[in-house]
Amino acid sequence: MTAAGLTTTQAPFIEEARIAGDLYIQQPYDLYIPDNHEAWARLYERMLPLWEKYANRHFLKGIENLCLDPNRVPRLDDVNKFLNPLTGFGAKAVAGYVPAYMFFDCLRNREFPTTITIRSKDTLDYLPEPDIFHDIAGHVPMHTDRAFADTLVRFGECAQTAAEIVSEIKDEHERAMRLTSIIKAMARFFWFTVEFGLMKEGNRLTVYGSGLLSSYGEIQHCIESPDVQRYPIQLEWVINQYFEIDHYQPLLFWVDGFDHLFDLVGQLENWMKEGKLNNVSPGEPEVNEADLLSFLHRTVR
Q1: Is the CB of residue 287 less than 8 Å from the CB of residue 188?
Q2: What is the pLDDT of residue 84?
Q3: Is 154 helix (H, G, I), strand (E, B) or coil?
Q4: Do 62 and 132 meet the contact criterion of CB atoms below 8 Å apart?
Q5: Residue 170: is its pLDDT beyond 70?
Q6: Which of these, 93, 119, 234, 260, is most buried using a 10 Å CB contact count?
Q7: What is the distance between the alpha carbons of residues 169 and 172, in angstroms, rounded to a whole number?
Q8: How far apart are CA 278 and CA 257, in angstroms?
Q9: Mean pLDDT over residues 221-235, rounded?
């Protein structure tokens, strides 16, 4: 059973959990094999100089605060011992995809759904789905910052607002159409900020988005390439801008700081209440049935 360890798409433990319907799990640390730890070590070693050059100061402080071992896959319990006293956040192990409302509700409760598998050491640049390096080395250092953590909680609260708004719509078709548009807008906002956001620090742009912070090729490309369009963030642009996940991002937005980002989340919620998210532009991302049902039924656990 342990031959593949906890390698992404090859882990029997994860498949068994999914078949059993277990989304929230414990991290079976003893199942990691030497190849898994080698993959982590290689990823960490090659990202460190890029973080020092391109990452924002809050992330760099977070890496320091988490005391991650550069040579071994982290234990989530150890991560949480450093993280929780700082902002109340904790990494929560999951077996796979978390439907939208459940994901946002975790954020509202200062929990971050965390993948426990890791990509193969032979395919470090190929990421068919999130892995523990993306989640722990990309996302979690930002969770040590109080302003950023509070912004995630605020974003999670927006999901509650969305569920309350659509629950008052009697017509099923109208309810589904409006909810699809709201979820699409929220997903785009999350993508262009938490996953692929830039920050203005002094007279230069730095990276705070986890998708960029965990990508060896894209972290430099997003700052230095003339092929990337970079604009100060505008909410109306973000919620109507589709994105594709299978190539480097050609369009990115920057914020002035996390207080700015917090205010934008508040604006997003106000627009939701005013109906401005009811008919955003079509295109990616697609909203699947599990995401819709998670809001309609307010699926939390």
Answers
A1: no
A2: 97
A3: helix
A4: no
A5: yes
A6: 119
A7: 7
A8: 28
A9: 97
- Residue showing tokens 């002035």: 256
- Whether residue 273 is predicted with pLDDT greater than 60 in this model: the reply is yes
- Reply yes or no on domain 12-296 having CATH 1.10.800.10: yes
Give phi and psi for 112, each to the nearest 5.
-115, 110
Cα separation, 21 vs 166, whole angstroms: 27
What sections of 88-145 are H helices per DSSP? 100-108, 132
Cβ-contact 25, 116 below 8 angstroms: yes
* The two structure tokens encoding residue 294: 């998670």
Closest of 143, 130, 126, 131 to residue 216, by C-alpha? 126
- What is the pTM assigned to this prediction? 0.94
pLDDT(283) > 80: yes
Side by side, the strands of the sheet bearing 198-201 are: 204-207, 198-201, 251-255, 229-232
Closest to 209 (Cα-Cα) out of 31, 10, 55, 92: 55
- Alpha carbon distance, N-terminus to C-terminus of the chain: 28
Pull the structure tokens for residue 295. Answer: 């809001």
Give the dihedral sign, CA 281/284/289/291.
negative
For range 163-171, the mean pLDDT: 92
pLDDT digits 0-9 by tens, 9-57: 999 999 999 999 999 999 999 999 999 999 999 999 999 999 999 999 9
d(CA 140, CA 145): 10
Tens of pLDDT, residue by residue over 104-139, are: 999 999 999 999 999 999 888 867 688 999 999 999
Half-sphere exposure of 117 (CA within 13 A, CB side): 24
Q: Which residues pair with 206 in a beta bridge?
A: 199
Q: How would you class 126 by CB atoms within 10 Å of its CB: exposed for 0-12, middle for 13-18, buried for 19 or more?
A: exposed
Which pLDDT does position 2 carry in this prediction? Answer: 43
Strand ranges in 169-291 using DSSP code E only, listed in sequence order = 198-201, 204-207, 229-232, 251-255
What SS3 state is found at 272? helix
